[in-house]
Design goal:
Elements lengths: L4 E2 L3 E4 L6 H9 L13 H18 L3 E6 L7 E6 L8 E6 L8 H15 L6 E5 L4 H9 L3 E2 L3 E3 L2 E8 L4
Antiparallel strand pairs: 1-2, 2-3, 3-4, 4-5, 6-9, 7-9, 8-9
Length: 167
Amino acid sequence: MTPVLESERLILRGWQREDFPAYAAFCADAKRTLHTGGQKDAFQAWTAFSSMVGAWALNGYGMFAVEPKDADAVAGFVGLWHPPAIDEPELAWSLYEGFEGRGYAVEAARRVQVWAAEDLKLPPLMSFVHPDNLASQAVAKRLGAEPMSPTELRGEPRLRFRHVLPA
């Protein structure tokens, strides 16, 4: 079961079927998906959406839907992702069109950092950011993540950031 986490302005919650159209629109947008694996058609988007839901059963953690308290809409997603190709869980985030520039990614990711440290007792988290994704690099830096040596992920270059979790 996905917990519900709250921050000052956001609710981080489990995915609902009604969230899929907004996710599918995000996946279909070439600009929004440029640094996250590229566009997906509706079927591919459903597969990815279902994968986010299923990760909770496999790992005990996963991606949250991010919902602003003052809006009846999903603003994006944030959470922990741990495919077999990486050693530590990854803290990842993406916002949907119209929700950038409000500090939501930082606020949501900070809340997940606290949850990962206090409730899950996880080791430091990683974030893998495409070198051209300046917005996500800025989020990682605002979160206090430490830059590490670059790497490759899914055959593409990535900057690595290590998140030292709150004690």
